[in-house]
Design goal:
This protein is α+β, with helices and mostly antiparallel strands and about 240 residues long. It has 6 helices and 12 strands. The strands form 3 sheets. Strands 5, 7, 8, 9, 10, 11 and 12 form a 7-stranded mixed β-sheet that branches. The protein has a 3-stranded antiparallel β-sheet with strand order 1-4-6. Strands 2-3 form a two-stranded antiparallel ribbon. The protein folds into 2 domains: about 35 residues; about 200 residues.
Length: about 240
């Protein structure tokens, strides 16, 4: 019986070793899906990409170096501090390079983690969806801004908005190469390709931003997509709606 027991043990060890090799091989080819691997903007979007992007809020230098390594050009904005809880230390303005989409109005500044997420959103979500639905690329994103010293919904009290630290952007629409305009306010309820594109853009953003709110969430978001990169929402709250 002893030789048989040894044989079974060797067989089990062999299977465990083989399984370990398979897992190791998969992990080497899919670093974006592992929580402990460093973020690389050149990698595909993985299961933990969104959380790694949100975590960049603790390391502005790393965030900017990731943009540089990805070929993205930007201007680092000087720190801005206002009374109460408003201001930022790590804001940047995307200027081009590997980024093809312009922002209108021009001069948009956001926190670096939001900028990094916008870059991946362009590459992996917005442009592929535009090509699929229209056969055209997006050349501009229309927005309502990022930094705004205010509380949520502009109330006089309550939790501060992520806009108060430039950790959010409100996207109002998109323009294609042929000047076609896609508006969240006008086209969200459309039954054609514009609405389908907007929903693809919203759904894909959910893998990259901590919170994504659309007209499906409430009337306050009827005309824009709210994208924010809060590292920790209220009681850990995150949303995609």
């Amino acid at each position: 019986m002893r030789p048989l027991r040894i044989l079974k043990t060797l067989l089990v060890l062999g299977l465990v070793g083989f399984a370990s090799m398979l897992v190791y091989g998969w992990a080497r080819n899919h670093p974006e899906d592992l929580p402990w691997t460093p973020l690389d903007l050149s990698q595909p979007v993985g299961a933990f990409t969104g959380r790694k992007l949100a975590g960049l809020g603790d390391d502005a230098r790393l965030c900017r170096s990731l943009l540089e390594r990805a070929g993205v050009t930007f201007n680092a904005l000087p720190p801005r501090r206002m009374e109460r809880q408003c201001g930022y230390d790590d804001a940047v303005r995307l200027t081009g390079g590997a980024v093809e989409i312009a922002y209108r109005p021009a001069g948009l500044g956001t926190s670096c983690p939001v900028a990094a997420a916008l870059v991946l959103w362009e590459w992996h979500v917005v442009q592929p969806a535009a090509l699929e639905h229209f056969g055209e690329k997006v050349v501009a994103i229309e927005h309502f801004g990022s930094f705004s010293c205010r509380r949520i919904y502009g109330r006089d009290e309550g939790r501060w908005s992520e806009h108060a630290t430039a950790d959010a952007i409100d996207v109002a629409g998109f323009r294609l190469e042929d000047e076609t305009r896609i508006s969240v306010a006008r086209d969200w309820t459309d039954e054609g390709p514009k609405a389908a594109f907007l929903r693809d853009a919203r759904d894909g953003a959910c893998d990259l931003f901590a919170t994504v709110l659309s007209p499906d969430y409430n009337a306050a978001h009827r005309d824009h997509l709210h994208l924010d990169q809060a590292e920790r929402g209220e009681a850990g709250w995150r949303a995609c709606s």
